[in-house]
Amino acid sequence: MKHLLAVLLVVLLAGCAGTGETKLLRMNPQPTAATHRMFFPPPSDGQVPRYVYSGELIGEQNFIYPEGHRENGLVTAFRWIVGLFEEDRPTELQRPQSGVVDESGRILVTDVSRGAVFVFDENHGRLDVWEMAEGYRHFIAPSGIALGPEGRVFVADADLKRVFLLDRDGNGVGVIGADQLQRPTGLAWDANAALLYVADTYAHCIKVFDMTGRLVRTIGERGEEPGQFNYPTYLAIGHGKLLVADTMNARVQALDLEGDAPPVVMGKRGVMLGDMVRPKGVAMDSEGNYYVVESYHDHLLVFDGQGRFLLPIGGAGRDVGRFYLPSGVWVDARNRVFVADTFNGRIVIFQFLGGGRESE
């Protein structure tokens, strides 16, 4: 009975879809005056703020109708009837890992617990969930994600041991790395060279593929010297650099993509702010600053282009500016910084205000 009612509700909603009202994406579903203008570092410390809290994404609760919207009475009645037979639970992030923002402004987030990619589509006012890797095969442990050419999307599934290529609607159109990857985690797409970089965590190296799926080269091996890795996880590309979270070496390396310059090494094992224990997500902004998620200490660390430590954001907790075992970080074209606050089940967003050590 409940399934029939659910089908009727879907049909009714489809029949009422022509009202022309699109839901709005509200970055903070529960805004408060205290969080609207939270700066990092705080002005009270006598420092120039570099970031401001912009909100968080948790799921379909982020999408709301414009003020003054009135739902069709029949739709309201059917929602109530269906609710008598099954719990109406919103679709929410569970354990987000990493993400990207595409050219149309969609925010795509991998969720390893949900086994899916969440797509926050602001232009169409909806949340889509991509569960299929290819054909009838579901994602199991989607982790890294990168934007490819022509609106396509790469998704690394660590348990399926391959990278899946999806079209812009989430349909599987190709596979990369089958029988060549042990545990793919992070991804980075070099648009200039049309090459996909894959962090093969269990192989302790970075593998580079072309669009045909051919393995072009392998970077690094297990070790502690510059250019060597110990369980690398996440990647980012920008400003001629490949940024690698060299996780079990407790450091991040910035490798030169265009020459033979030695890697810039950031971080060391320790307990002081700026030190690292389990670095994971990495990213870069338009000014060349580096971002590192230090998951063990629940911090987002900011470094300049020379690898000098600038600023920490975080600490363990649920409050604004705090994290619980965060994972990925990424930066969009507007210099918004997104942090996958994994065990809090949310994406936290900061706006970079510009300026850093080099501009002071």
What labels describe this entry?
mainly beta; globular; five-stranded antiparallel β-sheet
How is the biggest beta sheet arranged? 5 strands, antiparallel
Cα Rg: 21 Å
Q: Sum up the overall morphology in one term.
A: globular
Structural class: mainly beta
What is the end-to-end distance?
66 Å
Number of separate helices:
3
Report the mean per-residue pLDDT as an integer. Answer: 89
Could you estimate the helical fraction of the residues in percent?
A: under 10%
Strand content: 35-45%
Low-pLDDT parts are 14-18
Kindly report the oligomeric state of this protein. single chain
Q: Total number of β-strand segments?
A: 29
With strands numbered from the N-terminus, the spatial order across the biggest sheet is 2-3-29-28-27
What can you see in these coordinates?
This protein has 3 helices and 29 strands. By secondary structure, it is mainly beta. The chain is globular and about 60 Å long.
Give a quick rundown of the structure.
The protein is mainly β and 360 residues long.
Blueprint (SSEs and pairs):
Layout: H1 2-15, E1 24-25, H2 33-36, E2 39-40, E3 51-57, E4 63-64, H3 73-85, E5 96-101, E6 107-111, E7 116-121, E8 126-130, E9 132-134, E10 137-138, E11 142-147, E12 153-157, E13 162-166, E14 172-176, E15 184-190, E16 195-200, E17 205-210, E18 215-219, E19 232-238, E20 241-246, E21 251-256, E22 264-266, E23 279-284, E24 290-294, E25 299-303, E26 309-314, E27 329-331, E28 336-341, E29 346-352
Antiparallel strand pairs: 1-4, 2-3, 3-29, 5-6, 6-7, 7-8, 9-10, 11-12, 12-13, 13-14, 15-16, 16-17, 17-18, 19-20, 20-21, 21-22, 23-24, 24-25, 25-26, 27-28, 28-29
